[in-house]
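Run log // design_07
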């Protein structure tokens, strides 16, 4: 509930750059003792950073600045405006972010459309973004692919190429890119998991996505640890 209230109050449409700048970095630095608010800030600040400068470091199809932003509700997306821009300009790039926070939902979706009807090469690149300071990514992909049929319908005429970007607090041990093979629907522990096309999964840390936000997060953790230590010392002195 607290997250949803924060999202409604602080993330109205057309204010995707709200979470950028020195004041927000300072808020982040002083939020280490509040895990809920810390998580909220990191997610929204990174999303705002992506809106400002795109994600060309991952793939040139996501390169851009000051991306047009749209809201989605429970994975109900409207690609009409972006498709119109692609038909007019040959390509279009936009960022979709949620109006509310839901369990197992993505944090943002970057969509890059290339419109080449003369060659039959219309392509929709979907960068599915999920950010977690606790490394909890369970069910995010399954939840996303349950809507795969809707994506195919809305993006009819486009070849859809999905990529998942998982952002964690620190760098991941092991390869930072994985190719997930195509799979049909299957039952796991009594639950039906949807099938999926082949897709790429990319792992990045907060600092790798935005150095300033990553540094502010590190400072937030250090300040929280220092405050906890001071409190423990004070309690020990009172007991003595």
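design_07 sequence
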């Amino acid at each position: 509930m607290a997250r949803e209230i924060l999202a409604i109050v602080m993330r109205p449409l057309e204010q995707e750059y709200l979470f950028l700048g020195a004041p927000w970095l300072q808020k982040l630095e002083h939020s280490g003792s509040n895990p809920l608010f810390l998580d909220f800030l990191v997610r929204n600040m990174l999303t705002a950073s992506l809106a400002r400068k795109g994600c060309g470091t991952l793939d040139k199809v996501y390169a851009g600045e000051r991306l047009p932003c749209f809201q989605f509700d429970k994975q109900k997306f409207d690609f009409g405006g972006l498709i119109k821009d692609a038909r007019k300009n040959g390509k279009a790039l936009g960022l979709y972010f949620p109006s509310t926070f839901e369990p197992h939902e993505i944090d943002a979706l970057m969509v890059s459309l290339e419109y080449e009807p003369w060659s039959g090469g219309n392509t929709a690149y979907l960068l599915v973004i999920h950010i977690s300071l606790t490394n909890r990514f369970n069910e995010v992909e399954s939840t996303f692919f349950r809507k795969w049929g809707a994506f195919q319908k809305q993006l009819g005429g486009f070849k859809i190429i999905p990529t998942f970007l998982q952002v964690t607090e620190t760098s991941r041990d092991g390869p930072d890119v994985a190719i997930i093979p195509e799979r049909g629907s299957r039952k796991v522990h009594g639950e039906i998991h949807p099938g999926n096309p082949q897709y790429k999964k990319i792992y990045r840390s907060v600092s790798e996505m935005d150095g300033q936000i990553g540094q502010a997060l590190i400072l937030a953790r250090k300040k929280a640890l220092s405050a906890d230590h001071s409190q423990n010392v004070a309690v020990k002195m009172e007991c003595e």
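The mean pLDDT is 81.
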